[in-house]
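Look over both lines:
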Amino acid sequence: MPKLDLKSSLPCYQARAGVFDIIDLPPLTYLMIDGHGDPNAGGPFSEAVTALFSVGYKLKFTSKNELGRDYTVMPLEGLWTSPDPSAFTTALDKAAWDWTLLMLVPDWIDAELFSSARAAARAKGGPGVEQLRMEPLAEGRCVQTLHRGPFDDEAETLHRLHTQFIPEHGLTMTGAHHEVYLSDFTRTAPAKLRTILRQPVTSASVDEP
């Protein structure tokens, strides 16, 4: 049985270190769960990660066994927002952050299959399983780059993205800061982490009369 790996076929997983790439994304479907606060504090964030991977793997095996369609479970992703936009570029007040954790799923996964997998994962997935949903996300045009190293070192790259690259290319930010965790941050040394940093944008000229 062939196994689909969306990381090798979608441009949103092909970021380059030291380069800001402009890409256009179609609507994609994700498992999602919302939360608030410092991700390093454990609690709700850890519970959300557990729920997401519990349902994600159960969904993969349900698809393989019932539909005969296998795929690679995708990496953890996160959408991040803050009342103060500078929180990601100059400050690290992580307690004020809102987040939505994501996991991409193939387009053949439907609501019935998701509901079945979520029900099967309740025993091991913890309290966060009931908060999971499956929705499309339409980011459209984005700018992204690959960050290597600790999460706390992202601020300099994001500052250049927000204050230099985006305005210099006639763009404005439109959506939440998006991160794709290509490394397992529970097992990888901070210096070796690989994280895609993505920002949805729109052309400034489109919004002006």
The longest strand covers residues 194-203. The mean pLDDT is 91. The helical segments are 44-67, 111-120, 122-125, 154-168, 204-207.
